[in-house]
Please model this.
Amino acid sequence: MMESVINKKNQPGKQKDKSQVIETPGQIVLKRLLKNKLAMLGVILLVAMILFAFVGPLFVKYGYNTHSDNVKMPPMASNILGTDYLGRDMLARLMYGGRISILVGVISVIIEVVIGTLVGAVAGYYGGKVDSILMAITDIFLALPFLPVVLVLGSLMSDLKVGGEMRIFALMFILGILSWPSIARLVRGEILSLREQEFMQATEALGLKDIRKIVKHLIPNVIPTIIVNATLGVASAILTESALSYLGMGVTEPIPSWGNMMTAANKLVDFQRRQWLWIPPGICILITVMAVNLVGDGLRDALDPKMKR
Model:
């Protein structure tokens, strides 16, 4: 009888021990992110725009450069968002244009992150002359006026008649090459503090090679910082591509992008009477950039150990 009473008393304690589950850092970050309503709104909007741009074209019957006699027609049953000055379906071009704008933003940021992370990691780990040389190169790139340089390079591509896909690849490369210094400085600062910690002393004792210390032990510890800055960088790259394409220095016809689709607003008649030519791409840019910024802010808060929400 006494044993059964003791067992009953011990049962709640056992249940409490089982309920105390240890959460991994990844689970903690995910939980914080899921609690952030604005971040979740950003995720939903971003997924919707990605599906619209990459899956949507599978369900439309027109290509992005399919011409017709219905020139500058308003929205109707056969063309939900109307047609442009060559009779091309605006919905199809909006979807394909989304692919280009999003890909330019993502790939240019990947180039930026790879270069910036490697330069910052090497400079922070070795210090001394290596750090001085790499940071001097970084300062030179930071001193370059971003927008004028991009405009000059875009004008140069136009003069050399670089068009089509080659121009898109060149634009990705230019945006990535001119944007890496900010990430390099952030990574360097993080690694300067990390290399003095105990786990790095353990790698010294084990006799690991420098490249393994950097790639396996240092860079993984700065990934949260890289992720947040890369996410916000995508929004900036999309806006830059849109501005350049609007000015005729980025993606050019007949390949659509949200930026070059908005050039219809240059003509007063189209601006006042044919809003279907420029409002939809403007809305797409607004939604995508806002969604990326919301996700970036949510990741920053979720990855911050000081946040206890």
